[in-house]
Amino acid sequence: MSLLPSSARRWAPIALAVVVLDQLTKWWALNTLDDRDIDLFWTLRFNLSFNNGMAFSQGEGLGPVIGVLALVVIVALVLSVRREDNALADVAVGLIVGGAIGNVIDRLFRDPAWMRGAVVDFIDFQWFPIFNVADMGITIGGILLIAVSWWSARQAEQAEQAEQADGVAGDGAGETNDSPESKDA
């Protein structure tokens, strides 16, 4: 018997993997990139940066609000996924929850203070905002969740249309015409 509900057993390992990978890569970045950048290829480089705001460095100084909102999103996703029986939705929720937790950990425990910490970013294309593994999980998970929602709505619509078509086809099947005009013929 597991302590986790069945839906959590599906997405929680993915979330845990994202959190662990995110925190390990941030630890690496803090210890390796404090005094240098590493150019990889094309415009991709590892470049240590700290973000006190939200995505794309917007909302500077709103760390506590962003942290609370992230926790609300985590709870909402966890509650909503209980109703889904879709493996891709579980992957999406695991990626989003893991990414959100990874960034909330930074906000909670990094300097300058509790819930005012800066998120560690280090993946830099130089033409796109700098991001981290948690951000990748949130973005990829969000795209997957949108795709799953679209696909599920499409499947439900097709099932409803098929049901309506079966209902229309069944209305005249097997019925006899007992009207007075048919008996006279």
UniProtKB/TrEMBL annotation:
Q: Which UniProt keywords apply?
A: Aspartyl protease, Cell membrane, Hydrolase, Membrane, Protease, Transmembrane, Transmembrane helix
Pathway the protein acts in: Protein modification; lipoprotein biosynthesis (signal peptide cleavage)
A GO biological process held by the record: proteolysis
Q: Where in the cell is it found?
A: Cell membrane
Give the membrane topology: Multi-pass membrane protein
Q: Which reaction does it catalyse?
A: Release of signal peptides from bacterial membrane prolipoproteins. Hydrolyzes -Xaa-Yaa-Zaa-|-(S,diacylglyceryl)Cys-, in which Xaa is hydrophobic (preferably Leu), and Yaa (Ala or Ser) and Zaa (Gly or Ala) have small, neutral side chains
Where are the catalytic residues? D121, D135
Q: What GO MF annotations does this protein's record show?
A: aspartic-type endopeptidase activity
Source species, domain of life: Bacteria
Enzyme Commission number(s) from the entry: 3.4.23.36
Any one annotated GO CC term: plasma membrane
Q: Which residues form a coiled coil?
A: none
Transmembrane spans: 61-80, 87-105, 125-151
Q: Which HAMAP family does this entry report, sorted A to Z? A: LspA (MF_00161)
Q: What does this protein do?
A: This protein specifically catalyzes the removal of signal peptides from prolipoproteins.
Q: Which family does it belong to?
A: Belongs to the peptidase A8 family.
Name it. Lipoprotein signal peptidase
